[in-house]
Amino acid sequence: MKPASINPRVVDTGSPPIPAAQGWLARYDGAHGAALNLSQAVPSAPPHDAILARLAATAANGASAGYGPITGDPALRAAHADSLSAAYGATICSEETAITAGCNQAFVVAMMALAGAGDAVILPAPWYFNHKMTLDMLGIEARILPCPAARGFVPDVAAAEALIDANTRAIVLVSPNNPTGAIYPPETIAAFHALARRRGLWLVLDETYRDFLPEGSGAPHALYGAADWRDNLIQLYSFSKAYCIPGYRLGAITAGAGVIAEIAKILDCVQICPSRIAQPAIAWAIDGLADWRAENRDEISRRAAALTVALAGCPGWRADSVGAYFAYLSHPFTGVPTARVAESLAAQRGVLTLPGDYFHMSDTGHLRVAFANVDAEAIGTLAARLRGFAPD
Fold it and tell me: Which residues on adjacent β-strands are paired with residue 124?
């Protein structure tokens, strides 16, 4: 009897790394205090009480158990479009948005809409590992664009253009970046948009962490001011971080109405409709909790500052980039596999980070820190834990 087989593209794709890394903490004996889980970009705060009340009310309403529109409830699509219009000084209508089951799903359906097996998508590295996994499983070549620490992990337009050929369909940018925290200057984003337009490619801009840009930063870019932005721009977003609802899985895609109509075909096959319960609450909270979201942003900024102070007392350790939810740390253990450094740090000192080679196969010198899950006081203990540490 011949055994059935699994799609080899799925088999050849690496497993989700965070669950495996979290197992490293099982060896920690607590000698240096409570474990610091800096591995996953998850908000430590619960949703606002007003969101919780609305979630409960919607869950108790039998109507919310039924199917909704494929691309999301009209109220949330309109509220998100209005929010984008205000943030970017542009006019974006609700028909140019679609609500998804988180930003990961937004990326998957966008890639399915833009490229097929054998095509290529330019992906800056270090990359967000779920982006790389998605492309691998779809049979789309991830054409890697290295973003070195010397450039602040900001991608170079000329280097990207050198990677373009007849098979290239899109360029992906993530700003603020996961994993590095790098914030791309508006002129860099504009230059990539111009490149994409000139070469007939899509620019897919993941702005999951835009709510955590420093106060007073202004619009992250001016792309929506171009009359023809709908011809080659797709923006991705997540409500998980800003509204502290990662378990409710709400994200969004913004693109021209024609593109949204094509993406709706895919959404109908993979989700039929977004989860109904959280949509009314977030449609209200976009305006109703603007001050609370600003407070959350400021708290995350305080944690970033606490991390910078802590590292100042750790010879050999350096933050090569800090921004939004993340820091990308250079460690002093040259020649030691980065996974070994991260595993030993978790087991010996109770500090769980992710090794750089989870985000780029050749990155053996960095650890990613996601500091939204740990408060500033706890981050302040990091210096004592790093001093004197050496990997097994």
Answer: 145
Alpha helices in 139-203 (DSSP H): 157-161, 186-199
Contact 178, 326 (CB under 8 A): yes
In this prediction the pTM is 0.95
Token code pair at residue 45: 């705060």
Structure token digits, residue 297: 């942003």
| Cα within 13 Å of Cα(323), Cβ side | 25
Q: What is the pLDDT of residues 11-28, one digit of tens each?
A: 999 888 888 889 999 999
Residue 327: strand pairing partners: 322, 369
Q: Where are the alpha helices (DSSP H) in 228-337?
A: 257-270, 278-288, 290-312
- Cβ contact 365:351 at 8 Å: no
Q: What b-and-e string marks burial along 89-118, b requiring 16 or more CB atoms within 10 Å of the CB?
A: eeebebbbbbbbbbbbbbbbbbbbbbbeee
Residue 104's contacts (CB-CB under 8 Å, 6 or more residues apart) are: 130, 134, 251
d(CA 196, CA 200): 6
Residue 326 near residue 213 (C-beta atoms within 8 A) = no
CA distance 24 to 18: 10
Give the contacts of 255 (CB within 8 A, at least 6 positions apart): 96, 230, 233, 234, 235, 263
Instruction: List pLDDT tens digits, range 45-56.
Output: 899 999 999 999
